[in-house]
Every structure is written in C-alpha cells, then in structure tokens.
Amino acid sequence: MENVQIKKEFLAICEEMLQQRIATSMQAMQQAQESANSDDKNSAGDKYETGRAAGQLESEMYGVNLKKHRADLAILNTIDPTIIHTQCGLGAAIKCEGFFFFIALGLGAVAHPLGKIFMLSPQAPISIAMKGKKAGDSFLMNGKPVKILEIF
Fold first, then answer.
1. CB–CB of 69/25 below 8 Å?
2. What φ, ψ does residue 99 adopt, rounded to 5°?
3. Residue 48 to residue 51: CA distance in whole angstroms
C-alpha cells in the first residue's frame, strides 16, 4: 500500500474517532441541559436549585469537552497526508516492527490490517522520545529499544 494512502487512512481513522467524540459530547451536553431545565420544583425547596445547578455544571463540562474535540479536529485538518516526512514530528507515520505510530492526536491504539496504530499527540512522551529521529534510528519504549523502520 502506498505511504500517502496509508496516511490518508490514518487521518480518516482519527477524524472518525473525533467525530464520534464530538457527537457523544453534544448528545451528553444536550441531555444534561434538558435534565437541568426539566427539574420540577418540589417541596424540597433548595433541592430544585441544587439539581438545576448540577445539571448546568454537567452541561458546561461536556461543552468544554466539545470545544477541545473541535480544536483537535482543527489540528487534524492542518495535516497534509501527501507530505512525506523524513523525521518524526506532527503528521508523520512511523513504521516499527509490527506496529505504527501516527503523530497527530492522542487518541490511543487502533487495530489496523497493517498492524496496531498508536495515535499520539506531539506532546506524548513517546513522541518526544522520537522527535528528530530518522529511519534506522532507535528510541526507548517502556525501557526497551525500538527501531524505526520507515517514516513517511
């Protein structure tokens, strides 16, 4: 498979994961707001106000998550998969023995037919350990050396 196509797939996986997180945050924020708005006033008095405040805080928390996910999507949209990297950095796909790293966003590990992909942010400790490395170089991961086979 061509390297540009692989990076396009990696980007599509990241975007799909982010879109799912955005949808989940929007739904949770809406449900929390609806819950806060529909709390009926009852004889407990302050309980009504406490419930509304808690619902409002929960809605705001999901709003913060939504804002972060949208900012992450904006970062993702700056990555050009047609750029072939020679060093580790934002937008680089790093092939190692049996797995890949994709430096874009910290989204975790994903199964792929080519091997496991670790979606990393540029600020992740492994990304920092790989920064400036080239194909053939090694770095430590969990105390063990890992050789970089290819970067693109």
1. yes
2. -155, 170
3. 5
- Kindly state whether residue 85 falls inside one of the protein's structural domains: no
Residue ending a domain, choose from 21, 50, 76: 76
Pairwise pLDDT comparison (36 vs 20), residue with the higher score? 20
Mean pLDDT of 115-128: 96
Structural domain for 125, as ranges: 93-151
Mean pLDDT of 131-145: 94
Q: Say if 43 falls within a structural domain.
A: yes
The total domain count for the chain is: 2
Contact criterion met (CB below 8 Å) for 79 and 108: no
CA distance 88 to 148: 10
Q: To 10 degrees, what angle do helices 3-38 and 46-76 make?
A: 170
Q: What is the mean pLDDT of residues 92-101?
A: 96
What's the token pair of residue 106? 């910290």
